[in-house]
Amino acid sequence: MKFKNINTMKLTLFIGLSILVASSVAFSAFKSVKSSPQKNEITVNQTFVNPIENDDSLGDRIVRYGMEFLGTPYVAAGCSKDGFDCSGFIYYVYNNFKIKVPRSSSQFENFGEEIPIADVKKGDILLFLSPTRNVIGHIGIVSNPKGMDSDFIHSTSGREMQVVITSLKKPGYTRRFVKAIRVL
């Protein structure tokens, strides 16, 4: 590039350096804004989380995790991804969230806090009588809370013989329903 005089050369250098400095300052500012949390974000283990977009409750996460096992076969005394009985399913799902619950459905009778069925939330547990005895013999996790019309996810030894979602409106469950409990 030829310059007609020294002043043109100085001006061109000055403009070039100004652009370079301005670009560097702008890049640094962008980098610091990009690496720091925004107004609505909180830092969790160096990961930025927007609480407005991440409002899942523990109950929602428990239900979502339980749904991953839909179709898993019913296995008597089962407590693994290979197969569950009803309490083994509850035990496995809650244990994933470091929540200690009994391993046997009958042990849930005096466990947790009893709540009115109208107040159930996702992740609460429904207790049912055994179909053949007058003891707690079946349990499930509330997946869609609607009082006595709630849906629950459970491992059934009934016709389906797998992890399923069932409505509490289903007569066989309505008749055997004992109570709802909260353990969260």
Automatic annotation (TrEMBL):
<dbReference type="Pfam" id="PF00877">
    <property type="entry name" value="NLPC_P60"/>
</dbReference>
<keyword id="KW-0788">Thiol protease</keyword>
<dbReference type="GO" id="GO:0006508">
    <property type="term" value="P:proteolysis"/>
</dbReference>
<dbReference type="InterPro" id="IPR038765">
    <property type="entry name" value="Papain-like_cys_pep_sf"/>
</dbReference>
<keyword id="KW-0378">Hydrolase</keyword>
<comment type="similarity">
    <text>Belongs to the peptidase C40 family.</text>
</comment>
<protein>
    <submittedName>
        <fullName>NlpC/P60 family protein</fullName>
    </submittedName>
</protein>
<feature type="signal peptide">
    <location>
        <begin position="1"/>
        <end position="28"/>
    </location>
</feature>
<dbReference type="GO" id="GO:0008234">
    <property type="term" value="F:cysteine-type peptidase activity"/>
</dbReference>
<dbReference type="InterPro" id="IPR000064">
    <property type="entry name" value="NLP_P60_dom"/>
</dbReference>
<keyword id="KW-0732">Signal</keyword>
<dbReference type="InterPro" id="IPR051202">
    <property type="entry name" value="Peptidase_C40"/>
</dbReference>
<feature type="domain" description="NlpC/P60">
    <location>
        <begin position="56"/>
        <end position="184"/>
    </location>
</feature>
<keyword id="KW-0645">Protease</keyword>
